[in-house]
Amino acid sequence: DDYITKPFTIAEVIARVRAVLRRTHRAHDHALGGPREPDITFRTLRLDRNNKSCYIDGKNIDLTPREFNMLHFFMTHPERIHSREEIMNEVFGVAVSNRAVDTNITRLRNKLGPYRDNIQTRLGFGYGFKSDI
Fold it and tell me: What CATH number has the domain bearing residue 51?
């Protein structure tokens, strides 16, 4: 359900294949009722992967599906900087503009309140989740 235009990099092919496999697995697990996935926690920030919910100090934070997926991606790959292209492929699943990634990062940071600084920017490289702040 995806295609790549030339020229492309091997990293882009791998990222797109992973995104398709992830969507396929999600659809399969959902159809079967799927196994319950454990929550991801960082201090008082908690992601409920089954209900697609985010909580800070037990209070529900209203995230869009893209914001949730972006935070999930960052929290499952902490201490690593991800390029905009990688974020596009892993989170959006389709090609979007670099500004769409930047805009979603800004919105996510605004909603994360005390954890906003954990979303790190590396100018010229991309974004990541830093846990030692």
Answer: 1.10.10.10
